[in-house]
């Protein structure tokens, strides 16, 4: 699941520097500090800092730029004005209509670069892209062995990123990096992180209090949040997403594979517009969790008199 932009920066700032030091990284690292705001609050930045502002929703930068919802190199006064003119306004982004409720405001380094570093998990390896692409075998664990896979000025950063993502069960990370040679500084910005939600019971404490935004244009339903909370308390899987609350086909399925088969079949028979939810429970969750899951699904299903 993708965490919010603010939490992505927070997690990276709290944990990545220590992994850089373990990778024998001799330079210091600059990771922007950020805040998440609704647009009313005063911003805790000094007048001479450069700032980037954007909605803290799951939206691509290109979509935000096209909609005029991503702005860089603002000072604190202009950032506050920008926020106040856009808060709680209904906007269209990438063909989806919704209301911007949260923004992330973060520091911007004057020499932030445009080199993209990406880490993603695959079935039999981890893929690290930074100019070129390197497939990292899952059994490569020693720092010296990892260094043998990378070269160039960002080799240490790539090694540290692999170690960092493994430790926090991050499945996908994208950021922009650059080197400021005059200051011996690594600058990191524009961070997006996806975590393996099934590992919350292992490293949820390291993630901290994370926000997992719903896709833009969809309401944040308390019933979905309740199931997510249950899911995080067990090594089993409990998933529930409302697709169309007015739909007439609801599913209550045991088994992740079965849920996909049933959903595909419903769509193949031409009833996609009537499909109300996607969900499943699997991995032998406790009986009381299955009861709460079923009660929640049935409660949403019967909440409308129609």
UniProtKB/TrEMBL annotation:
Query: Pfam families under this entry?
Result: Citrate_bind
Superkingdom, natural source = Eukaryota
Q: Which organism is it from?
A: Noctiluca scintillans
**SUPFAM superfamilies linked to this entry:** Succinyl-CoA synthetase domains (SSF52210)
InterPro entries per record: Citrate-bd, Succinyl-CoA_synth-like
Name of the featured protein: ATP-citrate synthase citrate-binding domain-containing protein
- Which residues are in the ATP-citrate synthase citrate-binding domain? 221-303
């Amino acid at each position: 699941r993708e965490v919010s932009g603010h939490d992505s920066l927070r997690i990276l700032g709290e944990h990545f520097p220590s992994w850089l030091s373990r990778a024998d990284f001799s330079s210091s690292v600059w990771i922007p500090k950020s805040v998440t705001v609704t647009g009313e609050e005063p911003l805790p930045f000094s007048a001479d800092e450069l700032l980037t502002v954007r909605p803290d929703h799951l939206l691509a930068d290109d979509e935000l730029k096209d909609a005029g919802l991503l702005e860089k190199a603002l000072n604190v006064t202009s950032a506050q004005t920008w926020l106040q003119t856009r808060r709680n306004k209904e906007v269209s982004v990438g063909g989806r209509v919704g209301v911007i409720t949260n923004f992330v405001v973060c520091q911007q380094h004057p020499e932030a670069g445009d080199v993209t570093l990406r880490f993603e998990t695959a079935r039999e390896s981890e893929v690290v892209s930074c100019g070129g692409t390197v497939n990292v075998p899952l059994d490569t664990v020693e720092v010296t062995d990892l260094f043998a896979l990378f070269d160039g000025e960002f080799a240490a950063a790539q090694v540290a990123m692999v170690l960092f993502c493994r430790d926090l069960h991050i499945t996908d990370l994208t950021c922009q990096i650059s080197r400021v040679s005059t200051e011996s500084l690594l600058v990191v910005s524009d961070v997006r992180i996806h975590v393996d939600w099934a590992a919350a019971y292992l490293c949820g404490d390291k993630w901290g209090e994370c926000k997992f935004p719903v896709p833009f244009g969809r309401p944040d339903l308390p019933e979905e949040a309740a199931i997510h909370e249950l899911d995080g308390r067990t090594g089993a899987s409990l998933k529930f997403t409302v697709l169309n609350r007015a739909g007439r086909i609801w599913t209550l399925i045991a088994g992740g594979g079965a849920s996909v088969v049933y959903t595909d079949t419903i769509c193949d028979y031409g009833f996609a517009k009537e499909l109300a939810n996607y969900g499943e429970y699997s991995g032998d969750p406790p009986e009381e969790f299955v009861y709460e899951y079923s009660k929640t699904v049935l409660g949403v299903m019967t909440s409308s008199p129609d």
